[in-house]
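Structure ticket #2291
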Amino acid sequence: MAENYPLVEQREYRRPEKTVGWLNRRSVRGEDELPLIAAHQVRVFRVGDDYVEDPGNLRPDDPLVTGASSVTVVDRRVEVPVVVETRIPSAEAGDFTVRTTFYCTVTDACAVVRDGVTDIEALLLGHLREVPGLTADGGDLPIVDADAVRERIDARLTAYHEMRPAALSGLRARHGLVEVLTPAELAEDIAKLQEERRQRERDRVRQEWEQEAALKRSLLETELELKREELRSTSALHRERNRQEEELEKEYGRQKHETLLSRFRRESGAEDQRHELSQRAERNRFTRDELKEDVRLIGADPILADFNAWRQGDISADQLSQRLHADEERRSGLADSRRRHELEDDLKRRAFDRDEVRWQVEREDRRKELDREARRDETAARQREESRRWDLAHEDRVRARHEAREDAHQLHRDRHELNQQGLAAWTQLSKQAFDRGLFDGQLTDPGAHINRVQDISYDQDRPAPDRGAGREVPGTAPRSIPHGEPDGFDDDADLDLGGTDSEANLGH
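Resolution: structure written out below.
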């Protein structure tokens, strides 16, 4: 049966939003908005009330494309087979199934799109049912005379088609092959189609399983890569933290070195100052000793001083007296200055010691604070990692339970379908065996054989008992029935459905 014929694809357009051009701006559609067409296909654009056929030459910026409200892809193949089926009564209880093949060709793609010819099988079926006398061609013949009915219908359809061809808008339909199927042939054909559909469904399920497995594998690989990335990030973080700690240690060592160096410089400067002061004190002491000795020798008597100065010829007595008075004042000023300098040096040294102690305390507090922050960060990272691992494990367990439930449901459905098929096959075989008279010459009770269908249906949803190598599968025919069973067969009697020539044709 033709799928998507003659209309392969249909799209509705909105107003184009994309514009191109610098000076002359114009609308344009995207490349993905134009459907791709094969060599035997054409595009039909609807522009207002007009329909324009395009074999693939129009570009996305063409005014016809930008102004179109819809586009349709039409199949232009020649002599495309389209199968139509209908039933006509026969002289017996069953019906004939007439399968007619029409060969169609699109003559006017615009007319097909304008009139909306989407379900061509329904149109051909209506044309087939309009043939006068078609339903009466098999009313006087039995089911076995299907060839005679086919010849009648073929002659009638050929004559009717020549006088009155099928009126399809934009299409030409030519009458072709005619098949007349009996109910048995139709059932066989339907069974074959069902088997093909089941095979396609199994292939689809297998592909879905393969895709799901590939998706799971890719997810696991992605999670592994994420874990590796996290490990690399954690290693880089640890390396950065170690580098920062080393830099802090180096900075601490450098600051400590600078502190010790500044302290050494301060102590060295203080030592130099003390040495200089001690030298000055020694000079002053020597001067004082000399002066004391002079004073002791000369005394404070102005007469002696004047006499000494006059004797030396340096100064007069008055000048000597003034000098002695000035020297006394100078000695008192030097003593005050020395005491003041010593007090200032002591104050500066105490201030430097207090600054050194405060700096060491602040440095120790800062180092302890950095250690506490590092420990808190490490604890938080470890807690986040444990929480994430627990979430991943929980998701894996939930996904595993869901997959197990899905597998169990699928296995249950497959077993149920297999049991249904076996029951249908056993019932059909039993019916044909009774119709052909296979149990006429057997010492068995047909009623007991029929009751086995109920036993099979009762055992569909129960597992078969373990009886060694000879256990039976529920829903299938037994290989042999012992004499002691209620069916009444002999010990070595087997159910043989192909003993005679008439029995060999069973099911054919």
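Closing remark: The longest helix spans residues 317-436.
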